[in-house]
Amino acid sequence: QGKQKKARKYAVMKRMISLRDERLKEKDRAKAPVKKKEDPSAIKEREDPQHPSCLFFQYNTQLGPPYHILVDTNFINFSIKAKLDLVQSMMDCLYAKCIPCITDCVMGEIEKLGQKYRVALRIAKDPRFERLPCMHKGTYADDCLVQRVTQHKCYIVATVDKELKRRIRKIPGVPIMYISRHRYNIERMPDDYGAPRF
Questions:
Q1: CA–CA separation, 167 vs 186, rounded Å?
Q2: What's the pTM?
Q3: The domain at 64-187 falls in which architecture?
Q4: Which portions of the sequence form the region Disordered (predicted)?
Q5: What is the mean pLDDT of residues 8-35?
Q6: Of all residues in the chain, what percent carry a pLDDT higher than 70?
Q7: Would you tell me how many other CB atoms lie within 10 Å of the CB of residue 96?
Q8: How far apart are CA 167 and CA 19, in angstroms?
Q9: Which residues contact 28 (CB under 8 A, 6 or more apart)?
């Protein structure tokens, strides 16, 4: 003879006693939350994010030649694959002097990649590159670049990483440089914003 299958009961929960139940002893009972009375004479504080003074709507007035370009790890690697000279290609793209900036965490990321990326490391140690010190722990560069660009709006971010691009697009007034068709392109520059020209 076969066993009769018992149907499982779904969504059945064990009944639990409430912490405010009168059957509980006084010491085990949960205390009712005490509401603080608001002082009507107290000044109400509201935190609004401070908007940077360099922005005229979406137009960033801090961007101008010489352009400071924050370089990401994958941007250097893709430049090598596309056989592009970093500084020269940046100048060809923007028609102005460019100063590539590299943070300590980006440098750490390239060093971690090992022997395979020694050419990228040599390019990153170029004296034309400006080195920016980092105070945070670890070598995750994306958070560092986003934070730096949020605080100081004077940078253009050079990256090929889709996730980082998506995060930077949310920050107003920050252009993105990327590689397509074996040349550097810029996603948005001050002339695109439609600000008045004087």
A1: 16
A2: 0.70
A3: 3-Layer(aba) Sandwich (3.40)
A4: 21-48
A5: 72
A6: 84
A7: 11
A8: 45
A9: 19
